[in-house]
Amino acid sequence: MVGKAIYENNLLESTFSVIFLNRILGVKNTINELKYSDQVLYKNLLQLKHKEGFAENLGLTFSVSENVMGVQKTYNLKPNGENIEVDESNKLEYIDLLCSFRLNYQIDQQSKAFAAGMKSCIDPAWIQMFNHEELQLLICGSRRKGFDVNDLQENTEYNSNLPSHNERV
What we know:
The chain is mainly alpha-helical. Helices cover about 45% and strands about 5% of the residues. It is extended.
């Protein structure tokens, strides 16, 4: 539907997250995009990244546990991750892997299906030339209000002090 709307130059009412648009474009999301989906986790990971001697005290491992439809499920961020503790020497790797899991892996199946549908209407090379902001504009247009014509008229000064056609500017 979105691909067809773009192809036919129709704007849609819905907007999409930066994270989702990046995945459609094949761009890997990083900690920089985490602030758009989980502000608390973003701040905590920045604190972990910048505070020395903090990592060992948190009891973190290279695994993530979450509730999936009532069942507790654990995902390893790397092989044997549940047995590897996060410390100062590997905290940057942990941050990178956790962000990649949350922002790329978890939505990978859905974003690939969405992109495949969109790309069935539009040549993928055309989509790839845009960044996430431009793709958002292409899908739904600008959310900014239009010009206030009255304000423009009230604050515009007209005069005829233009150089003649023969004068140099």
